């Protein structure tokens, strides 16, 4: 199976881009450009941190990454190495950087069920009647109007991201939010990308950069 050159994850500060040190830089740059192109509205305006891991990037490569991010209107570009984390958090982050992410470039339709032992990224919509279950994060680069369960094995750090977050039921670990008569989190005015996470034992909805 072909290795991914980059892995993109969201956190409270915006977006983190992990670079695979085993992949040539030119391949990484092409892959990153393709991801930005396929989800331009999702990435536009987001703060981005580039984590090269063990890769040593030259000043020219660093400038190429900055120029690419600016081309697609990402903001607050910075670089960092792998941070010091607790053993539990480190284990979760490493599993993601090792390719434990399922990427689906299609719409999940009513009656379809996606279940994965890791993170799930959907470049498309999740329609009413569809279900997405992940042991890690769920990222929907489109409208999320079905049922979603992140952190399905009890990971309370898991989060749900979507360009339009209107699920009929949303679960993170043991916490659940549902609506008996329609969609959760109905929007007024222009919809913006949002994320759901657990805070103080409850599911809360925030802007991507909150």
From TrEMBL:
Residue ranges of domain Septum formation inhibitor MinC N-terminal in the record: 7-74
Keyword field contains Nucleotidyltransferase: no
InterPro entries noted in UniProt: CAP/MinC_C, MinC, MinC_C_sf, MinC_N, Septum_form_inhib_MinC_C
Keywords in alphabetical order: Cell cycle, Cell division, Septation
Cleavable signal peptide: none
Coiled coil ranges: none
Domain Septum formation inhibitor MinC C-terminal: start-end pairs: 103-205
Pfam family name, one: MinC_N
GO biological process terms held by the UniProt record: cell morphogenesis; division septum assembly; regulation of cell division; regulation of cell septum assembly
Cell cycle in keyword set: yes
Subunit structure: Interacts with MinD and FtsZ.
The protein's role, per its UniProt record: Cell division inhibitor that blocks the formation of polar Z ring septums. Rapidly oscillates between the poles of the cell to destabilize FtsZ filaments that have formed before they mature into polar Z rings. Prevents FtsZ polymerization.
Stated family: Belongs to the MinC family.
PANTHER family: SEPTUM SITE-DETERMINING PROTEIN MINC
Protein name: Probable septum site-determining protein MinC
Organism: Anoxybacter fermentans
Gene name, Swiss-Prot/TrEMBL: minC
């Amino acid at each position: 199976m072909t290795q991914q050159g980059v892995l993109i994850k969201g956190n409270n500060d915006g977006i983190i881009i992990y670079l695979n040190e085993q992949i040539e830089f030119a391949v990484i740059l092409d892959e990153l450009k393709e991801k930005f192109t396929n989800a331009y509205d999702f990435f536009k305006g987001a703060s981005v941190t580039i984590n090269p891991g063990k890769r040593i990037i030259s000043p020219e490569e660093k400038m190429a990454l900055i120029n690419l991010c600016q081309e697609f209107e990402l903001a607050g570009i910075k670089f960092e190495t792998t941070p010091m984390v607790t053993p539990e958090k480190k284990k979760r982050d490493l599993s993601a950087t090792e390719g434990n992410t399922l990427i689906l470039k299609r719409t999940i339709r009513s009656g379809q069920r996606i279940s994965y032992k890791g993170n799930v990224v959907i470049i498309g919509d999740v329609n009413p009647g569809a279900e997405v279950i992940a042991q890690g994060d769920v990222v929907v680069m489109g409208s999320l109007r079905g049922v979603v369960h992140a952190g399905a094995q009890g990971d309370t750090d898991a989060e749900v991201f979507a360009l339009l977050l209107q699920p009929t039921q949303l679960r993170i670990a043991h916490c659940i939010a549902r609506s008996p008569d329609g969609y959760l989190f109905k929007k007024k005015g222009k919809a913006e990308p949002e994320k759901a996470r657990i805070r103080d034992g409850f599911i809360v909805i925030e802007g991507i950069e909150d």
